Protein: Pyrroline-5-carboxylate reductase
Amino acid sequence: MRIAVIGAGTIGSAVAKALAEEGYEVVATRRKTSKVMWLEDYGVEVSNDNKAAAEKADIVILAVKPNKVKKVLEEVKPAVEGKILISFAAGLSLNFLKRLTGAKIVRAMSNIAVLVKESFTAYTTDDLDKEEIELVERIFGAFGKCIRVEEEYMDAITGLSGSGPAYASVFLEALIYSGLKVGLPRDIARLAAAQTLLGTAKLLLETDFHPAQVREMVTTPGGTTIDGIFELEDSRFRTAIMKAVEAATKKSKILSLEIK
Ligand SMILES: NC(=O)C1=CN([C@@H]2O[C@H](COP(=O)(O)OP(=O)(O)OC[C@H]3O[C@@H](n4cnc5c(N)ncnc54)[C@H](OP(=O)(O)O)[C@@H]3O)[C@@H](O)[C@H]2O)C=CC1
Ligand SMILES: O=C(O)[C@@H]1CCC=N1
Structure:
């Protein structure tokens, strides 16, 4: 199975590395190839020839920015005819992508945790048979967890879990920073913050606890946590997160309108 990753930038290079580590034959393209020569250490072939890469591949993954998709698809159109084409471009619909190629389209949204095989990938398609779905899910399995969803959810997924590592990182940065404020050394603050977020996420994934239950379990009456929660509520922390996800979702929706 040979996979071409077109657009080996932030997410494309992470995807190429993850697939190569899983044993797939991978070619990754971008114009400034010097920036990703490190991928060769993982057995990835690096190239600046999208057309040749797509021609030789069984499956093509598109990881260029949304505003570059049209140009790249014009270039590789004959080469991807009838092949599975997975697009990671935010906002671009199945219909938009289908109008540009005769490929079997999968619209997907992953996140940067591909780098540690803990990504969340949601995808939608109406072109693939059962075997092809299995194939695509095996590919996404190299990145972490994956689910198939209706296309109507893809913009919301983009706003929540595609962009999510950025929100989580802002929260982590704030936790680490506050650790410094209350006197912790940097390395201890970093470890305490990251492990706490990881542990809490695991609690949700491995038990049936609702986050509100976890919050209640931690909040000892008259104890320390309630003083922290009081400050968070006063700062409308949950409203801020909801506004962030809503704004990113809206942006995903307008991207395809902008790139008509
Ligand atoms: N970053 C993330 O966490 C996520 C991003 N995405 C999606 O992935 C896509 C890429 O995002 P991101 O990785 O952040 O962006 P980057 O800018 O880091 O990567 C895009 C890459 O595309 C390359 N590129 C541009 N034009 C061409 C071309 N004609 N042929 C081949 N390669 C080209 C660029 O390299 P060069 O200039 O050298 O050609 C660049 O490295 C977007 O559509 C985004 O919506 C999806 C999920 C998560
Ligand atoms: O910011 C972006 O547009 C991309 C899509 C999801 C994460 N990064």
About this structure: The mean pLDDT is 97. The chain has two domains: 2-149, 164-255. Residues 230 and 236 are 10 Å apart (CA to CA).
